[in-house]
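Project standup — Tuesday

K.O.: blocked on the structure for the chain from last sprint. Re-posting the sequence here as requested.
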Amino acid sequence: MAVLIPSYKEDHIIINTARKAAAHDYATGQFTVYIAADRIQPETVIQLRAIPQVEVLEVHFELGSKARSLNKLFNWIPEGKHEVAIILDADNVMLPGCLEKVNAAFQQGFRSVQCHRMAKISIRR
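H.V.: unblocked you, prediction finished:
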């Protein structure tokens, strides 16, 4: 399974997101986290590349977009390496069991699955 995360100038959050995605409770070696790093600082890219199970593709566009970044990732990942791709925003965190549920849906014959996204809530006093 491929976990794809396009990131545009999101140095402040992408390392945390990548660490949590790579630490997901899915079978070790059965998924890889791919980051499309568009206008990410070199120091951040170094930190991302140090995370096990994370691969980083640096991309540069005049006008950045998630679609362009995802297309670059899809063309960069070796064909046939993964059967399923899941796309996260740079601030998304998967709940435990997420990849198992997605995999189960595909094993039942579904061709696409949409997960429910819950926004982070911050309370200020």
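K.O.: great, moving the ticket to review. Strands lie at 2-8, 32-38, 54-59, 85-87. The radius of gyration is 15 Å.
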